[in-house]
Design brief:
9 strands; 50% helix; 433 residues; 3-stranded parallel beta sheet
């Protein structure tokens, strides 16, 4: 009898082993099916999308499938749930006249975002101010808008403007852009080693304290390395880099080197890796741009448009910039389609290059300190994630690399929302009598 029971036990073990082997060889879902399931389940947040106020009118707006990289139809097609719409102002003179002109631009962008959410499409998109808002709005089936300010220059030298912008919905602010502001040196100082403040100005130091008090996340994506180090040392709350990648993989001053990345981890912050081709792979980007330069010029000429290179942009008038940015997506889309048909065209920077940076930063500072951004409509966009309609491709590449659902949820927004929660909690403590 014992021998019979033993034989049954052996047969049972062999049967289980065969079943397990069969399960491993024929998984219940493909990689793409798994990626789709995860993409539909997690809340996807893109922390940097620029806007043009001309696309926020009652006749021309984001309810339409415009040429813009971000709009509601493309967000729905790609499964992008949350877009941080950016109040961006370029750097100008540090004068009262310059500040006044910049503030007018900034306020017009705040008003445009509110118009979209409150008048044009309140049934489709709603403005969020907290992580709880994000969850509630997402659960209702709407898309979510949040507001970031790129360059505090429009605030002039009046620190009360931080409260004014906070009340308008701003939940992160960077103190500089391409050029030194009254608050902070910019990364662009690396080009000629000319600095205005050697990091933060005294006003910039006060601005960090005020942002901590209000509950505004400090964004370090454009300031200089010394300014970033001073911000991290001064801030009582975690900070973010709203759209920056790894300098070790691409030596651009807009990226963060290993020292900066490790400081971000110590601070408890998050680095939103950006899908901006020249910040991901300079060599590939330059080779492709050199190849397509003539193509884009011919396309623009055939449309009766002036075409400019990126280094010419700062010298253009506001009217020229506006016209160029309006037509840029259309011209580039046609140019890329022409280049794609040529066997001689060099490869474009793509989603794989983008996720290489995510891999690197995750390996260096951990999964809890990394996020995702595109810089759409501000120069961002790569092959495979050229606009919001292709957002799923990022999740697919992450699944292919072996990231779990929990890890992908963190990358797509949970890490950022954790920082926002901590920043707002610290602000409440500061504000206590």
């Amino acid at each position: 009898m014992k021998h019979f029971i033993y034989l049954l036990s052996i047969l049972s073990v062999m049967s289980c082993a065969q079943t397990n082997k069969k399960t491993q060889e024929t998984p219940s879902e493909t990689v793409e099916e798994k990626a789709k399931r995860i993409h539909e389940k997690v809340v996807t947040i893109d922390t940097h999308n620029d806007i043009n106020v001309n696309n926020f009118t009652h006749t021309l707006n984001y309810t339409q499938r415009l040429e813009t990289q971000i709009n509601l139809p493309k967000m729905k097609e790609g499964g992008l749930d949350v877009t941080w719409l950016i109040v961006y102002t370029g750097q100008d003179t540090l004068t009262k006249e310059g500040y006044a002109k910049a503030e007018k631009n900034a306020i017009s962008k705040f008003e445009s975002i509110h118009r979209l959410c409150e008048e044009i499409a309140p049934e489709e998109i709603e403005l969020a101010l907290t992580s709880k808002d994000v969850k509630r709005i997402h659960a209702s089936g709407k898309k979510v808008a949040m507001i970031g300010v790129e360059n505090a220059y429009p605030m002039g030298d009046d620190l009360t403007n931080f409260k004014k912008y906070y009340d308008q919905g701003a939940r992160y602010i960077s103190l500089a852009h391409n050029g030194h502001s009254q608050f902070s040196d910019s990364n662009t100082g690396e080009k000629d080693s000319v600095w205005l403040h050697n990091g933060l100005s005294e006003l910039g130091q006060k601005a960090i304290i005020e942002m901590n008090r209000l509950g505004i996340m400090v964004d370090v994506s454009h300031p200089s390395k010394e300014a970033i180090k001073q911000m991290i040392a001064l801030s009582k709350a975690p900070i973010i880099a709203s759209h920056s990648s790894a300098r070790a993989l691409c030596n651009h001053s807009r990226n963060l080197d290993d020292e900066q990345l490790k400081l971000m981890k110590e601070n408890g912050g998050v680095v939103q890796t950006v899908a901006f081709s020249s910040y991901l792979n300079t060599e590939k980007d330059e080779a492709y741009n050199a190849y397509t330069k003539g193509i884009l010029e011919k396309v623009a000429d055939s449309m009766g448009l002036e075409w400019y290179t990126r280094d010419q942009f700062s010298s253009l008038t506001d009217a020229q910039k506006e016209t160029f940015m309006k037509n840029y997506p259309k011209v580039k889309k046609i140019g890329i389609s022409i280049a794609d048909k040529s066997p001689d065209a060099p490869p474009m920077v793509d989603v794989s290059d983008f996720v290489d940076h995510i891999d690197y930063i995750v390996d260096l500072i951990g999964i809890d300190h990394v996020g995702i951004s595109s810089d759409f409509d501000g120069g961002g966009g790569i092959k495979g994630w050229s606009d919001a309609s292709e957002t799923f491709n990022v999740t697919l590449e992450l699944v292919k690399r072996g990231y779990t659902e929990e890890e992908i949820a963190k990358l797509w927004g949970e890490n950022l929302m954790r920082v926002l929660d901590e920043v707002q909690a610290i602000a409440k403590d500061i504000q206590k009598p």
